[in-house]
TrEMBL record:
UniProt-listed Pfam families: Dynein_light (PF01221)
Keywords from the UniProt entry: Cytoplasm, Cytoskeleton, Dynein, Microtubule, Motor protein
Keyword presence, Lipid metabolism: no
Name the UniProt record assigns to this protein: Dynein light chain
Source organism, top-level taxon: Eukaryota
Length: 97
């Protein structure tokens, strides 16, 4: 595991899920090169799909913009090492948070 500490920028996830998100990100950074953002994101998405059911999305990088609708209680945006992590479960606009 990396020694770096994650900084949560914004979230509406339960605390236990937040820790899972940061642990999955740290594990992915141990497994993949820091420049391989696609593999890091895929690793985290697969972990969340297995643990919390399908439909999760994950964006990893140092510079990106986004606009999305998510299910309430499933969003986190944090920084770990030099990368930003955005994890959320998609939703229809009728049930948007």
């Amino acid at each position: 595991m990396l020694e770096g500490k994650a900084i949560i920028e914004d979230t509406d996830m339960p605390v236990k899920m937040q820790f899972q998100a940061m642990a999955s990100a740290s594990q992915a950074l141990d497994l993949y090169d820091v420049l391989d953002c696609k593999s890091i994101a895929a690793h985290i998405k697969k972990e969340f799909d297995m643990k919390y059911g399908g439909g999760w999305q994950c964006v990893v990088g140092s510079n990106f913009g986004c606009f999305f609708t998510h299910s309430k209680g499933t969003f986190i945006y944090f920084t770990l090492e030099t990368l930003n992590f955005l994890i959320f479960k998609g939703a229809s606009s009728a049930s948007a948070a």
